[in-house]
Amino acid sequence: MIYPFEGKVAVVTGASGGIGRASALAFGRSGASVLVSDVQDEKGQETVDLIINAGGTAHFQHCDVSDEAQVDDLVATAISRFGTLDFAHNNAGINRPGSDEWTTPDWALSINVNLNSVMYCMRAQISAMLAKGGGAIVNTASVNGLVGNPSQPGYVSSKHGVIGLTRSAALRYAKENIRVNAVCPGVVDTPMVKDIATVPQYRAAIEAMTPMGRMAQPEEIASAVLWLCSNQSSFVTGHPLVIDGGATAI
Ligand SMILES: NC(=O)c1ccc[n+]([C@@H]2O[C@H](COP(=O)([O-])OP(=O)(O)OC[C@H]3O[C@@H](n4cnc5c(N)ncnc54)[C@H](O)[C@@H]3O)[C@@H](O)[C@H]2O)c1
Question: How far is the CA of 175 from the centre of ligand 1 (A)?
Fold first, then answer.
């Protein structure tokens, strides 16, 4: 789906690959100017090149989303370079299945990168959107924001937190024409899950747990992100949209 986003400006975090790259490309195809950001600079620039080669407009800026000053600077760049900010996809995240999130350092890392970051991003973005009279924000949560996992309390709590933050911001800014929603993907075939996706028996196990019998492709999450930013979802706010092939419907 291509939306009429000419003249609009979108910022996407974690856009060097996976879901963020797919959403940045989709924004670009729809005519928005895209501020691509990530901590992986080379791959981020690749995303920009893909957008530009397809006829779009984009710029890369390094941004560690767990650093509030870098996030503020990112939003300032959207304004200085493209003049405004209409859409934000707060998507950067980490998931480290081998770590022990029952210990303080691993817990803190997941909470900082996956949850505190969304607070920093939304604060800066909402301030810019208030100044221009509105906007739309989509945060990447997860089905892990809806269910527990005994070995990943940090990841799970961060994603539950993203949904809580999404709902809270949606309520606070509902009358200011800023809609705030979340996407909750099941397993998506991205670099984040390459360790399982590339091992046939693990991949088969995930596919067997998913009623639709497969993993999602990043573009299937991106299309929901763009819909949530578009006027087609003009009365949708505070919603955690589950995109999991039926996995949590069981
Ligand atoms: N792949 C899945 O199965 C799945 C499922 C549900 C939710 N998610 C969520 O989707 C989002 C995107 O993940 P993905 O699957 O595309 O994986 P990915 O690893 O391809 O993308 C994550 C991106 O975030 C970037 N990143 C990591 N730490 C960062 C930081 N501190 N600052 C800025 N950028 C940082 C990475 O460099 C990477 O480019 C994440 O929030 C993830 O938790 C993924």
Answer: 31
